[in-house]
Amino acid sequence: MAHVLQAIGEELDLVKYDTWNVLVPEGDFLTRVGKDNFETVLTKIKGEGHPAIQEWRDLQGHPAIHEWRDLQVRLIR
User: Fold this and answer.
1) Residues in contact with 65: Cβ distance below 8 Å, sequence separation at least 6, in sequence order
2) 44-69 CB burial, b ≥16 within 10 A, e <16
3) pLDDT tens-digit profile of 45-67?
4) Is 24 in contact with 56 (CB distance < 8 Å)?
5) DSSP of the chain, one letter per residue?
6) pTM passes above 0.90
7) End-to-end CA distance of the chain, in Å?
8) Residues 5, 31, 33, CA angle at the centre, nearest 5°?
């Protein structure tokens, strides 16, 4: 939402953070924002070689993810 408001020139006070809580049945985990750290947490939760890890990698390679990141960059500029 912040990107949209910034794109139309609306000022917005933002609170920036670099961590978030992952809440899953296996437990609660604090991780840094970003795809790489989540994969590390996922590996700790599920174990190396678990199908969920490859699913996460596949999701990161999906064209829609790249389109969203490109849109975010264009909106910030």
Assistant:
1) 59
2) ebeeeeeeebeebeeeeeeeeeeeee
3) 889 999 988 998 888 887 777 67
4) no
5) -HHHHHHTT--------SEEEEEETTEEEEEESSHHHHHHHHHHHH-TT-HHHHHHHHHHTSHHHHHHHHHHHHHH-
6) no
7) 15
8) 30
Angle at 40 between CA 34 and CA 41, to 5 degrees: 90
Q: Are strands 19-24 and 27-32 parallel, antiparallel or unpaired?
A: antiparallel
Tokens representing 35 are 């795809």
Q: Are 3 and 69 in contact (CB under 8 A)?
A: no
| Separation between Cα atoms, residue 59 and residue 53, nearest integer Å | 10
